[in-house]
Amino acid sequence: MTSDSCGPSSRLYLAAPDQLGLLSSGCGATCLPPGRCTAGPTLLGAAPSGLPNPLTSCRLHQHRPPSSRPLLWARAPSALDMRAGASVSGTGSAGERGSPGLTGAACGHRGGDWRRERVRRWERVRSRAALPRHGPPVGPGSPARARPPRAAPQRAAVVRTGLGEAGTRGPWTRAAGGPMRGPHRGPGPLQLLAPLRLLAPFRSCPLEALRISGPGLALGSGVPMQDSGFSVLSYVAGIAWFLALVFPPLTQRTYMSENAMGSTMVEEQFAGGDRARAFARDFAAHRKKSGALPVAWLERTMRSVGLEVYTQSFSRKLPFPDETHERYMVSGTNVYGILRAPRAASTESLVLTVPCGSDSTNSQAVGLLLALAAHFRGQIYWAKDIIFLVTEHDLLGTEAWLEAYHDVNVTGMQSSPLQGRAGAIQAAVALELSSDVVTSLDVAVEGLNGQLPNLDLLNLFQTFCQKGGLLCTLQGKLQPQDWTSLDGPLQGLQTLLLMVLRQASGRPHGSHGLFLRYRVEALTLRGINSFRQYKYDLVAVGKALEGMFRKLNHLLERLHQSFFLYLLPGLSRFVSIGLYMPAVGFLLLVLGLKALELWMQLHEAGMGLEEPGGAPGPSVPLPPSQGVGLASLVAPLLISQAMGLALYVLPVLGQHVATQHFPVAEAEAVVLTLLAIYAAGLALPHNTHRVVSTQAPDRGWMALKLVALIYLALQLGCIALTNFSLGFLLATSMVPAAALAKPHGPRTLYAALLVLTSPAAMLLGSLFLWRELQEAPLSLAEGWQLFLAALAQGVLEHHTYGALLFPLLSLGLYPCWLLFWNVLFWK
After folding, report:
1. 230 CB contacts (<8 Å, ≥6 apart)?
2. 363-377 vs 295-304: helix crossing angle, rounded to 10
3. Which class for 663: exposed (0-12), middle (13-18), buried (19 or more C-beta within 10 A)?
4. Is 613 helix (H, G, I), strand (E, B) or coil?
5. Is the N or the C terminus of the chain less surrounded, counting Cβ atoms within 10 Å?
């Protein structure tokens, strides 16, 4: 567009938005005559018909206007031809009715000699600008690139603007295809963006990373974006955000969202402490005598207190022997009794369960369960059925009973059908007591694959503990009392890290963890007997449980109003999902910035670039030696995924072969096979380079790293949505090594960083951090033994309960880590 600011009136020639050209602060060698215009910058536009764009090359930087006035050039449609005698006046002369053009009359110059001189200058400019504008200089032996055809120009419109001769506002006019504008209105958004869009074709300009494609801005060729500082800042911001979650501005006080449980105005009447201790002694004696769960005694005792008693037998063959619990072929019997609601139909129910394993008798919990059953039987206010469940073999018995109750089979458990059922289970509480007196009740909320119960259930437990004077803990830690000083948030950070590590493991930390799979809100309460001064007997624990069940009995629907995704720095404080997700978002932003940088570098290298200037056209064909074929990425991707599949399948399938050829047990064979396949992946680059094409070796690793970054970002994002703790820990460890991996620079340092941030090393480091936070540090030998046991337990829990940590690491993150290892050793 052109501007006439020296005549009696001002006039703008505005090109169509898709034809706006490129702007510079002084490439006007063929502008207005010297000395005619002296005030303010001038925006010059339409080139004469048939003449080239004056900004086709950086050679135009050599031509500076003799005037001190800065000139801004813009490419307008060639339809604005310059014919001798055509003029544009500010008062609506005959030139306005004809074809618009640029004449000397625009600046008060009478005569056409300077126009002929200007045409000659434009011809000289076109001869100088004949050099190729795009790509590297054409050297000997290099094929020249074909120039794509230019798009057909469009005709510009005339817009009146500015101030008149006497300082009055000019008339209202309309641009072609645009809205009505008056002089009091500011420039439109396209006019504001035009100066930014007019800088791209100068190959030596620092802003050449911006290129115009159509009416909008787009990233184009030029200097790659230097985002290293932004990446470091984003990573530090993610870590700092997570650490700040324990401070009161981000952590919030817990509150009850369910109206039916908003008050604790119930009178607990449980007083069966002596009866509970008697039941516990009888149960321990019969179990010691039989060596297993005393099913007959339990049936007889439950019937004596007025329950409907049923049993369920189950069996399960483990994929390999469980050396932790010393079992392989597992068979047992579950006993449960149902207290029918006298005031309602059997449509809803609550569960109180006690797991009995081989390593812990849990006798006091069974005694308290039976005493509570006898007390509840004498009450008439129950509106829901209550199920009293005693399971054998810990979680295996619980899983067998849940699968039979819901009539599903997700783990291959063989069990007998249930003879008695109650209503839909609304909530469940698992109880574990190891002595007649307790100093505190510790609550466990982490379930299978990081699932958490509704926060209202946890608030209900804390409320009744406070009412009865019970000391309640989370992760074995006392609650911080003063959140205003630094000691409170630091203690909350320790509790928060313990919860993150437990949730990231994906293990069910108690029987409640299996109930969460079936949309049953559940908690596990563990009685702890330590050397604290205040101790509580079974009556205090029984009253807390009675109060919880009486409030749950008031529920009209499932717990749904409070949070399901949260973090707990303490029992009285929580962090909601809207506050902790930005932490992992900042970490994933690092991968996005690195991927964008690689994409721009590949785009700059000539992978299907369009000609700058806004005109779409066929992409420039690249020489065979400069293209990056997708076939070169297939081999590392397939080999990496094949290694992950072997890591997932072979350890369990090949355990018998390993035991036949090596003097090891089945569990040891599984762990050793895991480590062997994991270490064999380090040879992946050598295997890959044998089948990878040697085409474009310089950009091959960049394309592979781009795919790996996107792959890793997608995995971490999906994991963080379902299990934030696991996603955050993986992002914290893997993002720096993934961003730094490249075949140049200190390769040894990068290799060490990759190994230290691999999934196996992350698991080992998490074990040391876990014990350090529990104030029970490990030695190197103890840590290694615990690491081997954790590997075996991870594989076993996946095949037994459906834990997803092992397949996520073996089928997803390990192959992705191998891609970065391949990038590091790219030849």
Report:
1. 593
2. 20
3. exposed
4. coil
5. C
